[in-house]
Recover the amino acids of this structure.
């Protein structure tokens, strides 16, 4: 049972890091008053991650609910 408790953080860490870095960079850019063209790449990364995970959720929803 101990191994199962450790598996989720190990598998989730590489997925969460880019989102966390992009959110921190974008919010720090907003708070510093940087121009939007410097903040936009980080916001684009967040939008792309959001679209990818929503698409994956829609694709696997039926399979997950059937089981």
């Amino acid at each position: 049972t101990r191994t199962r408790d450790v598996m989720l953080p190990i598998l989730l860490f590489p997925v969460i890091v880019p989102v966390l870095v992009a959110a921190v960079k974008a919010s720090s850019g907003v708070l510093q008053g940087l121009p939007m063209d410097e903040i936009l790449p980080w916001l684009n990364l967040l939008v792309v991650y959001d679209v990818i995970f929503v698409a994956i959720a829609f694709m696997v929803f039926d399979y997950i609910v059937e089981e």
Observations:
- The first helix runs from residue 2 to 32.
